[in-house]
Task: inverse folding
């Protein structure tokens, strides 16, 4: 009889452990910051409100290209403080791809049109045929993405 109680107690503990492991617990984690990066700087040359000009960016870097309502809009090239650069189309201050990319490590590539390989989601194909498809923040790979090599 005593042995029966221990077996019954063991079975009950086993079932209880199974039930407790099925209970979902709330976990929180920080989501990546996907807010657009606003570039600010000082106009060095030309018309940085409604036209073409050169702007030195706060924190280092430079944008040379077209402006509309004081934002990058049209064709241009942005060079960041780390030396990476992005040429192509800009709209409302955001990179729209379709141009040349030079990564921090010096590798050259092309950002697909309608991709934001600067701050958002995009796809870059490098000269060595390596492809990265994923998220970017200030030109760096960030968050989820896929890399395929030749």
Result:
């Amino acid at each position: 009889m005593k042995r029966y109680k221990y077996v019954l107690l063991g079975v009950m503990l086993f079932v209880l452990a199974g039930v407790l492991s099925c209970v979902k617990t709330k976990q929180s984690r920080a989501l990546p910051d996907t807010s657009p990066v606003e570039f600010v700087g000082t106009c060095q040359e030309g018309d940085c409100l409604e036209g073409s000009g050169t702007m030195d960016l706060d924190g280092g870097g430079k944008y040379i290209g077209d402006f509309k309502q004081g934002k990058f809009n049209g064709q241009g090239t942005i060079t960041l403080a780390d030396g990476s650069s992005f040429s192509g189309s800009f709209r409302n201050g955001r990179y729209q791809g379709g141009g040349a990319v030079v990564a921090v490590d010096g590798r050259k590539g092309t950002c697909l049109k309608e991709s934001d390989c600067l701050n958002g989601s995009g796809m870059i194909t490098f000269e060595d045929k390596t492809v990265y498809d994923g998220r970017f923040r200030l030109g760096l790979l960030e968050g989820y993405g896929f890399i395929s090599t030749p």
Observations:
- The radius of gyration is 26 Å.
